[in-house]
Amino acid sequence: MGDLELLLPGEADVLVRGLRSFPLREMGSEGWNQQHENVEKLNMQAILNATVSQGEPIQELLVTHGKIPTLVEELIAVEMWKQKVFPVLCRVEDFKPQNTFPIYMVVHHEASIINLLETVFFHKEVCESAEDTVLDLVDYCHRKLTLLVARSGCGGPPEEEGSQDNNPMQALQKQAELMEFEIALKALSVLRYITDCVDSLSLSTLSRMLSTHNLPCLLVELLEHSPWSRWEGGKLQQFEGSRWYTVAPSEQQKLSKLDGQVWIALYNLLLSPEAQARYCLTSFAKGHLLKLRAFLTDTLLDQLPNLAHLQSFLAHLALAETQPPKKDLVLEQIPEIWERLERENRGKWQAIAKHQLRHVFSPSEQDLRLQAQRWAETYRLDVLEAVAPERPRCAYCSAEASKRCSRCQNEWYCRRECQVKHWEKHGKTCVLAAQGDRAK
Fold first, then answer.
1. Residues of the chain above pLDDT 90, percent
2. Cα 247 vs. chain centroid, distance in angstroms?
3. Residues 6+ apart with CB under 8 A from 403
4. pLDDT tens profile 111-123
5. CB 151 within 8 Å of CB 157
6. pLDDT tens string 294-341
């Protein structure tokens, strides 16, 4: 790793050992902010480890210290905060903070955790170390993918646009909505990695995936809608690396990463002996699954040859008799994190929001500057560039960029005109980052 190393082995061990679950009331507090920064550091280090194809100390540490269940609980806790508490904050008419970055950090925390889980769940031992919380994680992924399909049916993901007429909280709501799309795509990858372990998953988890949620049919819906692809001005665009980019005509038949994740998940859920023994092929399921035959072209089979087995399975399914829904009496585990958190906080959403508004999300100017300095130390530019999935792209038009904002050094642009047009959106963040640099 050399110069790209962000954390020494001893530092990473300390950060992993210190991971813990926070009550919803404490989200955004000083201790919570410290853990958020630690998660970001672990996330970036895990990506660096994978990028240079060396050992996976972050993944190993998380397994050794049994911290995957902690991350899953934190993921679901911040998801609940965003659904139950964040809307209450946004409805407070006289709450117009000068800077919404402290609230943004809580909103962004879900993306940080799901990104870390996406990086480490590639390894089967991580899935196994999740223990019973894998049920909660399956439910989480199902919620995100269901929302993704629903939004695709209503015109696709929200567009990023100017918000000069909105107050700061309305602008933050828009950012959270945009972020939700990326989170759902990360959840798709995590779900695919869980299906890689289908031969070692508990019967309760398999039943949850195949019977309760009918994930194969949901994945078919995703392939049909393909929310990560769109046509703009007669050109095909795909979403990858947090941006939409135009696909060259010669590359349009190439399988995208996200489409590949869906196909692999379907392969695992339909062709593994363990899943086949549990999946009830009703007439509804049969009708949905047979839609896949239209997608299994020679071009696709050339890129994923194993799908020939899926093609054969579908040919057999077309001739097979459907099964009636099973009514077996089975004692199964159920996910408990969401239900427990909701039970513990039911009726307290207003009180939590009021407490956080008064004690957490109204920092002084000095507190903001100190926090800005810590953020600048966490998000080192050399590391951010190393973990970037592709070459920098213009923050305004998404073209390949070579010029960086001279003030904050964070955003990239392809030309001066794009920087000027983007300043209205970028200005506040730029000033805050510059203050952090001066504080150092």
1. 55
2. 23
3. 412, 413, 414, 415, 416, 419
4. 999 999 999 999 8
5. yes
6. 999 999 999 999 999 999 999 999 998 887 766 665 667 889 999 999
What is the spatial distance between Cα 430 and Cα 410, in angstroms, rounded to a whole number? 8
When pLDDT is cut at 50, 70 and 90, the band that residue 435 belongs to is low
Q: What is the pLDDT of residue 57?
A: 85
CA distance 258 to 237: 13
Q: How far apart are CA 76 and CA 22, in angstroms?
A: 11
Q: Which of 144, 153, 131 is nearest to 215 (CA)?
A: 144
Which whole-number Å values give the CA distances from 279 to 180, 283, 310, 323, in the listed order?
A: 30, 12, 15, 10
Angle at 111 between CA 109 and CA 117, to 5 degrees: 105
Mean of pLDDT values over 355-366? 85
Contact between residue 279 and residue 210 where contact means Cβ atoms under 8 Å apart: yes
What interhelical angle do 30-51 and 101-120 show, nearest 10? 40
Q: What is the mean pLDDT of residues 5-25?
A: 88
User: Is the model's pTM score more than 0.90?
Assistant: no
* Nearest-angstrom CA–CA distance, 373 and 370: 5
* C-alpha angle 184-190-196 in degrees, rounded to nearest 5: 145
Q: So where are the chain's domains?
A: 1-200+334-388, 203-332
**DSSP states along 58-105:** HHHHHHHTT-HHHHHHHHHHHHHHHHHTHHHHHH-TT---S--HHHHH
CA distance 196 to 183: 20
